[in-house]
From TrEMBL:
EC number of this enzyme: 3.1.3.48
Keywords: Cytoplasm, Hydrolase, Protein phosphatase, Repeat, SH2 domain
Cellular component GO terms, alphabetical: cytoplasm
Signal peptide residues on this chain, from the entry's feature table: none
Family annotation (CDD domains): SH2_N-SH2_SHP_like
Protein name: protein-tyrosine-phosphatase
GO MF annotations, alphabetized: cell adhesion molecule binding; non-membrane spanning protein tyrosine phosphatase activity; receptor tyrosine kinase binding
Reaction equation(s) it catalyzes: O-phospho-L-tyrosyl-[protein] + H2O = L-tyrosyl-[protein] + phosphate
Ranges where the SH2 domain occurs: 1-94, 104-172
Pfam family, one: SH2
GO annotation (BP), single: positive regulation of ERK1 and ERK2 cascade
Main location: cytoplasm
Amino acid sequence: PNISGIEAEKLLLTRGIHGSFLARPSKSNPGDFTLSVRRNNEVTHIKIQNTGDYYDLYGGEKFATLAELVQYYTEQEGLLREKNSNTIELRFPLNCQDPTSERWYHGHLTGKEAEKLLTDKAKPGSFLVRSSQSKPGDFVLSVLTNEDKADMGDRKPRVTHIMIRYQLDGKY
């Protein structure tokens, strides 16, 4: 996912367990990637170099694809280490893909985009669910109501947004 290190930490600490990880584009070195890994109650970030010809961890094995690099270090226990030589375990890729392919799920849509989609194409009672932009891991239910809102003299149907929060017990 194209998220910051802080967002990756939030996701891993709220939705992951020890050994959960995700690969994301590097914010500090465009073109490179970062592997964010949960270790107990902290998150470690590992830089992945993309030379254009191969991916590596700034030395060591070279891989044709990011997926090959991740698979290799997931399967080879004990190879990935911190500077202090503590082992970093890659066990569980954190699923950042869309959780469903249902028609009502619209993934990474902003609130404004959801409002436009619903007011342009839908009838009152229509809804969609999208990922929260402000709280990764949470969702938002956007519903077109039959109430009107005044918008610069125009009467437009109102869209209500309801946050669906992820709880630490794994429920929403």
